[in-house]
Amino acid sequence: MTATQTFVFESSYTLHYSTPKPVPLRLIIESLQGLERLIETTPRVLKKLTGIDDVGLRIEIKEVRSGSLIEKVIVKCIFESEEGLNKFLEKVKAVIPPKYLAAAVLAGLVGYGAYMLHNPTKTSSVTVGDITNSVVNIGGTQEVPEAVAKAIIEGVTNKREVAGATVNIVKPAKDQPGSSMRIDGEQDNGTDASYEFTSQFVESIPKELTSEPVEMTAKLIHVIVEIRATDLDNRDRGWEGRIQGLTNRIRIEFEDGVDLTEVDRKKTFNADVVLTSRYRGSESEPRPHSMLIEKIY
Fold it and tell me: Over the stretch 228-254, which tens digit does the pLDDT of each residue have?
């Protein structure tokens, strides 16, 4: 049987940690684990960037050098046809020199993770500027393209995972005060992309992902709510229910204009709600915690 031919595009980056002392092995391992977790996000980001969804991805660690730690990584994008590869490159070239792609995406993801860490309750409102400014303001010599930042916002589905991975990636520098880190892309026609993360940036990243509950909210229109517990004498307590197909039984609150008698009579109805979810401990996904019913139909 003849092996299926594939077509490959390679883009690499080098992650430098400027530290006064050698980095302990455990922190090297944690930083590589963080890289792996961010890389798992990359296929969706590339799909949003190029509109092409049949991109295979393989990561190779080319070199890990101790001392002031250096990690060299090759990202291989794999296609089943030459046409698919060419379409991908055409889309990328419209945004950034292809050789810079891996470095720009990684830098953008680190900037995105940093924003999440600094603004844990704003996961639904991050903007392109929040990412590009995060990188530029920390000393980057090459701006992350807006199209890459937009693809990150649209492609990342597990925001807490990216935040936690950012904590891990920064740890080798965080462990030694005054240290910094830098992501270098490949050279392209004699120029290169270099994204620097200053010691001030490193210092701003927490040592661990918070274990305290962090909330995020989502406005949901025309969902089916089922009432499971009621208290007509109290708007603020005793009400519980679920959103069909989305949550288990959770606490319910009401806007002032909602008629509790009508809610009790209908039991199951169409509504506009604000769903609040909370992260707990090391959980990578938030759990639905409560809903605010704004309007019933």
Answer: 998 888 877 889 999 999 999 999 999
Other CB atoms within a 10 A radius of the CB of residue 30 amount to 18
Residue that is written with structure tokens 């490159």 in the block:
89
- Residue 120 falls in which region: left (phi positive, over 0), alpha (psi -120 to 50) or beta: alpha
pTM of the complete model: 0.70
Distance CA 48, CA 108 (A): 14
| DSSP state, residue 204 | H
Q: What whole-number percentage of the chain has pLDDT above 70?
A: 88
Distance (Å, whole) CA 69 – CA 32: 11
Domain boundaries, the chain: 7-204, 214-296
Looking at the DSSP bridge assignments, the partners of residue 269 are 225
- Two structure tokens written together for 194: 């270099």
Rounded Cα distance, 260 and 258, in Å: 6
